[in-house]
What we know:
Number of strands: 13
Order of helices and strands: EHHEHEHEHHEHEEHHEHEHEHHEEE
Strand order of the largest sheet: 1-2-3-4-5-6-8
Largest sheet: 7 strands, parallel
Structural class: alpha/beta
Shape: globular
Amino acid sequence: MxxxxxxxxxxxxxxxxxxxxxxxCVFCNQPRISGQQEMVSxxxxxxxxxxxxxxxxxxxxWEVAYxxxxxxxxxxxxxxxxxxxxxxxxxxxLIQGIRLSTRPDAIRESRLKELYTSGVRxxxxxxxxLDEDMLVDAKRGHTVEDVEQACKxxxxxxxxxxxxxxxxxxxxxxxxxxxxxxxAGQLRADVCRIYPVIVIEDTELADRVREGSxxxxxxxQAVAYSAFLKSYLEGKGTQIIRVGLQSTEDFxxxxxxxxxxxxxxxxxxxxxxxWLQAIQQAIEEHQEVFGVIHKVIVEYPRPFxxxxxxxxxxxxxxxxxxxxxxxxxxxxxxxxxxxxxVHVMIDTILYGLVL
Length: 355
């Protein structure tokens, strides 16, 4: 297993509208997703970099990130103009590097070399799925081979490789999801974002929902899918840096969303589910060997309280109902022991669980 790279840098994000991308995917409405509809100006980028670092400090520990559009598909002259203030900051040691998000089929080896010289150190690819049929149906306009080749070129250039996955696209099943996970693991990405599909207003997917040809994921399905992807890819050495869309004022108020598993605390729900599965696996394995269980004590560090017990004690309630014949005790560890180990005492045998 490769060692997971911990992301210690702070991101200073700028959102680029839907320019450069030659396609409109069935799920795409970038202005609503990013909360921004106008192109950011070079002056704004330059001023924001200076002010943010001046106010918050941490010189040299920032990455300027260009999100939203397919950056490398934008005309090169526009790319260079947008990069200029970030490149200046990089050369002056104010930031650690530059991060771009783009399409897999918009990666060229010669351009990667130029971008590296300009200070680009991380590229995130909108992979979405690694199922060929689903890519076609989503109108992505690229293939699985495009993804594989782009990842190879980015790694060869010495850049940090990021991928973005969208579980729940039309045609998704557990079979397609597992296949995507396996192929994604083979890409050897350093970091990954997992965004279960949210149906945004003014998209083709919204039309499909209204006509009944597409049914969005429930929150429960999305949590299960996301937890599986997260666990599998972390096992392959990929750091999961986000699960679930960034909350916006409109989304939190229910504006602009037609359907799908949107929740401001979605990432927390996924972690809750991971702990639920870990505890349940320990119980089931114990039962297989020792039979009937009489008592379980779950002991966790204080920072893990909401993670292990679940949002609004959902995990506590689940186990109490699912295994009502067992006496359950949930308690915080004494002292300042904040290690990531959760102890589960099943009758007289102690299990140490780590995610």
